Structures are given as C-alpha cells and as structure tokens.
C-alpha cells in the first residue's frame, strides 16, 4: 500500500493506493495518526485506489475518527467503490463517516 498525503489548511487529504487490510492497516494508522494535530483535524480519505478493505481497514478508519472527533474533526470518505460502500453499510459505519462522491466536494464542505 502506498499513501499520498497533502495538507490543505486544517485538513489532510489522504490517497490510499492498494489494500487497506490486516497487513497494511497498522502502518496506515501510524502514519496518518501522527499527522493529526490540533491544527489538522479533518481527514479526507480518497478511496478511489483502494483495492481491498477488510475489518482491520475499517477499524483503522474508526480509530482515526476517534482521534479527530474530540477536536470537532471528521473523517470524510470519497470515491468509495461499490464493495467498500457495501462493507461500510453492513457494519452501519456509513452513519459515522461523512461520505462524498469526490475529494473536491469534501473540500468544499469541510
């Protein structure tokens, strides 16, 4: 998995390329988690290149949400594949994440 990160004011835009699974989720959480500060508390996660997401991947997203929520932050997911969308809905996680069709829309709303 490769991660591209761009900071835009109080937001991090994160593009994941590859699987977000049991093998890659800990590194993903570590890398993004240490970048979240009081100044950076909104995360936009571009899922357009995610090839697979499993329970460990969704748990990593929830952990990030728990990290930013006390500061009033959100985790927005964009470009969800059909499979990722179904997995989030089956776990009722679509109700805790902000979901947008693309990163540009998320940037305008956050």
In short:
The chain is α/β, with parallel strands linked by helices and 110 residues long. Helices cover 35% and strands 33% of the residues.
Walk me through the structure.
By secondary structure, the chain is an alpha/beta fold. Helix content is 35%, strand content 33%. The chain has four helices and five strands. The chain has helices at residues 25-33, 55-68, 82-90, 103-109, and strands spanning 2-8, 11-20, 42-53, 75-78, 98-100. A five-stranded mixed sheet has the order 1-2-3-4-5, with helices on both faces. Strand 1 and strand 2 (11-20) form a beta hairpin. Helix 1 (25-33) runs parallel beside helix 2 (55-68). The longest helix has 14 residues, at 55-68. The mean pLDDT is 90.
Structural topology:
Elements: E1 2-8, E2 11-20, H1 25-33, E3 42-53, H2 55-68, E4 75-78, H3 82-90, E5 98-100, H4 103-109
Parallel strand pairs: 2-3, 3-4, 4-5
Antiparallel strand pairs: 1-2
Quote the average pLDDT: 90
- What is the SS-derived class? alpha/beta
Strand coverage percent: 25-35%
Helix content: 25-40%
Shape annotation: globular
* SSE run: EEHEHEHEH
Count up the helices.
4
Distance between the termini: 26 Å
Radius of gyration computed on alpha carbons: 12 Å
Largest sheet: 5 strands, mixed
Name the poorly predicted regions. Answer: none
Q: Key terms for this structure?
A:
single chain, 110 residues, alpha/beta, five-stranded mixed sheet, 4 helices, 5 strands, globular
